[in-house]
């Protein structure tokens, strides 16, 4: 994995045209993705909104998911947020940079739980129409076990398929804020 520090990632953000944002649910992927997309005039693509879900929380079939990701990844300028390991290779093949949010799981769990008073029962901007916010025990278990179950798969894919693709690990909200502050300089 070609790890870079926050200052190098901030410098690369200024010229990157295709950025992947990875991290556990609740870690702040969508928030960071929206901010970067707005700042640099890039399209924000959300796996949840643009790839996975149809109204009523109906998941698209795997072939359609793969096809949508491949088509969207061909775009010239995007910030693509989402963790699906099966669709990481086509996104990585086109990406200029990976920003990987990796806070402690309690932070991600809190990030998901604090959505309850803010958006529970409403459709967030990074969700598909007809998919109101819902938080259930399975979702909380996914977050709790993410570092044990999903993270190793993601790391293996980046190691095997990432080549020289630069990856910046952001382990806290402070690190995310530092990245955003540094990337705003002279922009």
UniProtKB/TrEMBL annotation:
InterPro entries: Cytidylate_Kinase-2, P-loop_NTPase. Keywords: Kinase, Transferase. Transmembrane segments: none annotated. One of its GO terms (molecular function) is kinase activity. Coiled coil: none annotated. SUPFAM superfamilies: P-loop containing nucleoside triphosphate hydrolases. The keyword Transcription does not apply. This is Adenylate kinase family enzyme. It comes from Martelella mangrovi.
């Amino acid at each position: 994995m070609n790890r870079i520090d926050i200052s190098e990632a901030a410098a690369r953000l200024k010229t990157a045209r295709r950025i992947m944002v990875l991290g556990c649910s609740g870690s702040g992927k969508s928030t960071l993705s929206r901010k970067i997309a707005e700042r640099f005039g890039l399209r924000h693509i959300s796996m949840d909104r643009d790839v996975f879900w149809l109204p009523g929380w109906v998941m698209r079939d795997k072939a359609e998911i793969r096809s949508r990701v491949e088509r969207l990844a061909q775009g010239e300028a995007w910030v693509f947020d989402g963790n699906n390991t099966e669709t990481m290779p086509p996104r990585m093949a086109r990406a200029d940079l990976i920003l990987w949010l990796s806070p402690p799981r309690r932070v991600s769990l809190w990030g998901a739980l604090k959505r309850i008073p803010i958006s529970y029962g409403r459709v967030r901007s990074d969700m598909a129409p007809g998919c109101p916010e819902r938080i259930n025990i399975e979702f909380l278990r996914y977050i709790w076990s993410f570092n044990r179950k999903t993270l190793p798969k993601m790391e293996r894919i980046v190691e095997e398929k990432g080549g020289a693709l630069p990856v910046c690990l952001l382990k806290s909200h402070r690190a995310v804020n530092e990245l955003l502050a540094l990337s705003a300089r002279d922009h």
